[in-house]
């Protein structure tokens, strides 16, 4: 029983990270109807920024705040410089731009910070104060930070005028323009928030998997699976999908398929969802007239 509870607790901690990445993917998909294949590299680059600040003596939480702000600005700049010119371009053009961003960010991160594996500090104690037998301090801390970020994002979109304007621009750009909303800038802010959320996820997962330019490659697949499982157009579905995937991954890895096949399980899940339920567990099917 203790082993089962430990696997579930670890799955919940990982699931929070997958939920954050899945939410970032959903936010960009809602506004552009494309999948940002560079989301993982953006998160990795942001984590390297935090690591560099900490190495220069900046306290962890100050480095955390600076990284979040810088990541938001980077996300906005990426949308304005690289994505705005191809807003109305064919889907394949956007896919090529996303893949180009992935390669560029990965190469720049390796060029600046090199490709050696680095340890990333955790600000949380080794042992958790709550159920320390089942949760480490970092697991509890990462779950708490992820929940705070998700609740802040929910409150922003639900209760602030800017958040409502961003939702309107994502769901119906034409009508939003008619009421004076600057849709293009709303998309840029959405990219900034997605980059911010990815940065938090990167800083929470780095103490577990260590830091290198390819750190988020596998995590992005889990985030993509979480977004598809919950519904690629449903932010809260992506969050629930991440939690479900995190627990399922750990249980299957520990008792059924082994740890070597956990990433394969995520890929099988992606293919299965796309075949049998492409709108996810909590999404709604979209019908269009032809």
Automatic annotation (TrEMBL):
Keywords: Amino-acid transport, Cell membrane, Membrane, Transmembrane, Transmembrane helix, Transport. The keyword Acyltransferase does not apply. Signal peptide: none annotated. It is found in: Cell membrane. GO terms for cellular component: plasma membrane. The chain crosses the membrane at residues 6-28, 60-83, 95-117, 137-157, 185-209, 215-232, 239-257, 263-282. GO terms for biological process: amino acid transport. It holds the Pfam family BPD_transp_2. Its main location: membrane. GO terms for molecular function: transmembrane transporter activity. Belongs to the binding-protein-dependent transport system permease family. LivHM subfamily. This is Amino acid/amide ABC transporter membrane protein 1 (HAAT family). It comes from Jezberella montanilacus.
């Amino acid at each position: 029983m203790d082993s089962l509870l430990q696997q579930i607790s670890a799955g919940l901690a990982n699931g929070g990270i997958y939920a954050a990445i899945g939410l970032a993917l959903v936010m960009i998909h809602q506004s552009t109807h494309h999948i940002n294949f560079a989301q993982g590299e953006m998160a990795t680059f942001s984590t390297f920024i935090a690591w560099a600040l900490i190495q220069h003596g900046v306290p962890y939480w100050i480095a955390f705040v600076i990284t979040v702000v810088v990541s938001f600005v980077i996300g906005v700049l990426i949308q304005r410089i690289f994505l705005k010119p191809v807003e109305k371009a064919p889907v394949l053009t956007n896919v090529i731009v996303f893949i180009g961003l992935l390669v560029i960010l990965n190469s720049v991160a390796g060029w600046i910070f090199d490709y050696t594996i680095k340890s990333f500090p955790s600000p949380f104690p080794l042992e958790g104060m709550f159920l320390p037998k089942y949760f480490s301090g970092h697991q509890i801390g990462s779950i708490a930070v992820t929940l705070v970020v998700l609740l802040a994002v929910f409150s922003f979109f639900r209760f602030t005028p800017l958040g409502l304007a961003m939702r309107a621009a994502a769901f119906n750009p034409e009508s939003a323009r008619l009421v004076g909303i600057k849709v293009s800038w709303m998309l840029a802010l959405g990219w900034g928030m997605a980059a911010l959320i990815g940065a938090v996820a990167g800083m929470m997962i780095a103490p577990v998997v260590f830091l290198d330019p390819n750190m988020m490659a596998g995590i992005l697949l889990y985030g993509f699976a979480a977004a598809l499982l919950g519904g690629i157009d449903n932010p809260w579905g992506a969050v629930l999908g991440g939690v479900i995937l995190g627990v399922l991954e750990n249980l299957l890895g520990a008792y059924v398929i082994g740890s070597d096949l956990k990433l394969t399980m995520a890929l099988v899940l992606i293919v299965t969802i796309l075949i049998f339920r492409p709108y996810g567990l909590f999404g709604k099917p979209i019908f269009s007239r032809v």
